[in-house]
Amino acid sequence: PPEIGMLSQLQDLLLDRNNITGTIPTEVGNLSNLIDLLLNNNYNIEGTLPSEVGMLSQLQRLWLPQNNFKGTIPTEVGMLSRLQNLLLGENNFEGAIPSEIGLLKQLSQLKLHHNNIHSAIPSEIGMMSQLQELRLYENNMNGTIPSEVGMLLQLVDLSFAQNSITGTIPSEIGMLKRLQKLELDDNKIDGVIPSEVGKLSQLQRFWLYINNINSTIPPEIGMLSQLQDLLLDRNNITGTIPTEVGNLSNLIDLLLNNNYNIEGTLPSEVGMLSQLQRLWLPQNNFKGTIPTEVGMLSRLQNLLLGENNFEGAIPSEIGLLKQLSQLKLHHNNIHSAI
After folding, report:
1. Residue range 45-54, pLDDT digits in tens
2. Is the dihedral of CA 329, 233, 238, 199 positive or negative?
3. Are 145 and 122 in contact (CB under 8 A)?
4. Which residues form the Disease resistance R13L4/SHOC-2-like LRR domain (predicted)?
5. Distance from CA of residue 118 to its chain's centroid?
């Protein structure tokens, strides 16, 4: 009810996880002492986010995900100088991310995923020095990744996946020493994988599949000692798998399928990946024999090597793969007995 705006001493307004309908009354802007405004998971709150929300000078948490908001994100959001969490995901917001968002110096979480935002990522995003989580996936965002992203030194989680982002991965991304998740999949990113990626010593997830990357895999990738997922499939990657991949002792998933032009042999160092569960390499141009060291991958569940130019024998060591559920070696030049 609009009368909620009369609660001048209110600090916490937690109405999340109900079945509330209608719009946010503009009178909410009168709640000058409000710290927490949580309306998430109501599913049917609709209309626009009123500009009066910018008057909530004490606000620290604004949680609105999983509703039916529409319209643009008001520029007045930039006036919320104490804001720590801005969660607007899973709505129908559209238009641009306002550049004023860069004024939110205390912000640690920015989640705008699963909306209809169709602008470039504003360079002002680099001004949010406390940001730890930046999730913009599943929108219609375009333009390039701004180099200013490299200024987000506290960032742990970055997802720009499932957009229409173009251009290259900026080398400045190597400055994000705390980064654990880097999700850039399903975009139109091209160019090279910058060698600076090797500086991301805490990285656990690197998702770059379904893009237009047309470079080799840099040997510096082997420096990512915490990496669990390396998903580079469905690009235009060329060259060979660097032997340094064998240093990725925590790797669980290595997906390079459908690049068509990765060539050379499968390095024996792949046998050092003791945690590996999925090795997907089909639809490339690998040659040579399948290394016997594959038999050392005791946790392997999927070994997909089809549609390449492997030759020679199927190594007997493959029988050591007790967890294997899929073995696909079709469309190669293997010429041995089973």
Report:
1. 999 999 999 9
2. negative
3. no
4. 147-254
5. 18
85 Cβ contact partners less than 8 Å away, ≥ 6 residues apart: 60, 61, 62, 63, 107, 108, 109
Phi, psi of 222 (to 5 degrees): -70, -5
Q: What is the pLDDT of residue 243?
A: 98
Positive or negative CA dihedral for 184, 185, 190, 195?
Answer: positive
Task: Say which DSSP state 315 is in.
Answer: P
Burial state string for 84-105 with b = 16 or more CB within 10 A and e = fewer than 16: bbbbbbbbebbeebbebbbbbe
Surface-to-core class of residue 2, CB atoms within 10 Å of its CB (0-12 exposed, 13-18 middle, 19+ buried): exposed
Please give the span between the terminal C-alpha atoms of the chain, in angstroms, as a whole number.
74
Strands of the sheet with 261-264, listed across from one edge: 238-239, 261-264, 285-286
pTM above 0.90, yes or no: yes
Domain boundaries defined on the chain: 166-338
DSSP letters spanning 39-105 = --S-SEE-S---GGGGG-TT--EEE--SS---SPPPGGGGG-TT--EEE--SS--EEPPPGGGGG-T
Per CATH, domain 166-338 is 3.80.10.10: yes
